Automatic annotation (TrEMBL):
Residues 144-159 have a biased composition (Low complexity). Belongs to the sulfotransferase 1 family. This is Sulfotransferase. Residues 167-402 form the Sulfotransferase domain. The active site is at K176. InterPro entries: NST/OST, P-loop_NTPase, Sulfotransferase_dom. One of its GO terms (biological process) is heparan sulfate proteoglycan biosynthetic process. Its EC number is 2.8.2.-. It comes from the Eukaryota. GO terms for molecular function: [heparan sulfate]-glucosamine 3-sulfotransferase activity. It comes from Serinus canaria.
Length: 425
């Protein structure tokens, strides 16, 4: 009998799941349920308030002191965790060249698409683009990304000279938040160079050492910023300490999205590859009759942003972390990119002129760069149609996340307004 939650957490593809069985990542979270004082640099959130919100079986509600009961976890980090699906990278990190399971991830880079004849949109952008075939571009992306240090599908026009440097800025999460869209947009900046695939250095490849990591990076000229994105870092317990020990001034970017929608997106991704898995409604609950949400399911757990952020604030001041709204990255990509460029100390070069809204895809896409013949949209693995989820389940999930969201708003000083959203996709 399959445990589908474990199956869902198993590696799936390069971008999102990995190409080979990976060791389970470390458990998430720290002593969250202790009345610890996280983030001395920032504030002391009332952690005890969150205790009662935690999704433990009724007999184990920590606020009631019942944790002393046998079998009850004392803290959230003791809830068994299913491993996160994530990305071990392309051939350089273990994907056999041409492997089907490795294709989709590379296709997540902005695709250079064929122009569809007659699909005129505006004089400026020239044409709608057809939804591209993933495979051809994927193969191209894979081969470009095939060795450590290759540009990995870079869309930057910077010539391949300079020096390989460790990244000064990282997109650390969240999975399904819009991390690929952000990375590809910031790569349009001439002062940014980024590795196109996910190196997974701080979670899976750490033992390979910093020289391996440096070698994965593209070459940069003096003054250019090196970046990478690996969304699983945000939920990796060791990542903050490891990144801090690499460089304590590393700039961190987190793209966050309504955790309910994010969870459904996560599920949708798995469903697209394993249509036989149980419904979201089944997986989301430990006990549906009692309304007990299963927070040990990674699709749910990743969205407890306050929990994960608390871990980062042990090592980095809030001022070193930028939170990008995954929702606004779609509705106002230029506005979010302005914040990202300011945060990175870059001139605002990526502006509204770089984007157009592709009605076919339902997303903003990058206009064609000067040296290229085609605009770029993300591949089919972004923007999948989400299954319709029982509204009662959505309602319960919203209730579940609300206190964590509120805590997250307090911690970040930003209100992402997820409570006000009428419906999930
Ligand atoms: N411009 C643009 N084009 C396409 N998709 C966009 C864009 N901006 C944000 N998004 C949203 O990004 C979601 C995928 O997030 P990630 O790239 O972080 O996914 S992954 O973790 O790397 O697999 C993806 O989620 P789903 O719609 O659920 O597929 C998109 O909603």
């Amino acid at each position: 009998m399959w445990n589908w939650k474990e199956v869902m957490a198993a590696p799936e593809n390069c971008e999102e799941g990995g190409c080979q069985p990976q060791p389970a990542p470390p458990r998430l979270g720290r002593e969250f349920l202790e009345d610890a004082t996280p983030g001395t640099q920032t504030m002391n959130p009332p952690w005890s308030k969150l205790r009662s919100c935690l999704p433990l079986p009724t007999v184990c509600h920590l606020s009631s002191g019942s944790q002393k009961k046998a079998g009850c976890p004392k803290k959230l980090s003791q809830i068994p965790i299913r491993p996160e699906p994530s990305d071990p990278g392309p051939a350089a990190w273990g994907c056999p060249r041409g492997s089907v399971s490795c294709r989709e991830g590379a296709a997540d880079t902005w695709l250079r698409t064929q122009l569809a004849p007659g699909e005129v949109i505006t004089a400026q952008s020239g044409a709608f683009e057809r939804d591209p075939q993933e495979s051809s571009t994927t193969d191209e992306e894979l081969s470009r990304a095939g060795s450590p240090g290759s540009r990995g599908g870079s869309s930057s026009t910077t010539p391949d000279y300079g020096e390989k440097r460790l990244p000064q800025a990282l997109i650390i999460g969240v999975k399904k938040g819009g991390t690929r869209a952000l990375l590809e947009a910031i790569r349009a900046h001439p002062d940014v160079r980024a590795v196109g695939t996910e190196p997974h250095f701080f979670d899976r490849n750490y033992e390979k050492g910093l020289e391996w990591y440096r070698n994965v990076m593209p070459k940069t000229l003096e003054g250019q910023i090196t970046m990478e994105k690996t969304p699983s870092y945000f939920v990796t317990n060791e990542a903050p300490r490891r990144i801090h020990s690499m460089a304590k001034d590393t700039k961190l970017i987190v793209v966050v999205r309504n955790p309910v929608t994010r969870a459904i997106s996560d599920y949708t991704q798995t469903l697209s590859k394993k249509p036989e898995i149980p419904t979201f409604e089944v997986l989301a609950f430990k006990n549906r009759t009692l309304g007990l949400i299963d927070a040990s399911w990674s699709a749910i757990r990743i969205g407890i942003y306050a929990l994960h952020l608390e871990n980062w604030l042990q090592y980095f001041p809030l001022s070193q972390i930028l939170f990008v709204s995954g929702e606004r990255l779609i509705t106002d990509p230029a506005g979010e990119m302005a914040k990202v460029q300011d945060f990175l100390g870059l001139k605002r070069i990526v502006t509204e002129k770089h984007f157009y809204f592709n009605k076919t895809k339902g997303f903003p896409c990058l206009k064609k760069p000067e040296d290229s013949s085609a605009p770029r949209c993300l591949g089919k693995s972004k923007g999948r149609t989400h299954p319709k989820i029982d509204p009662d389940v959505i309602h319960r999930l919203r209730k579940f996340y609300k206190p964590f969201n509120v805590m997250f708003y307090q911690m970040t000083g930003q209100d992402f307004q997820w409570e006000q959203e009428e419906s999930d996709k």
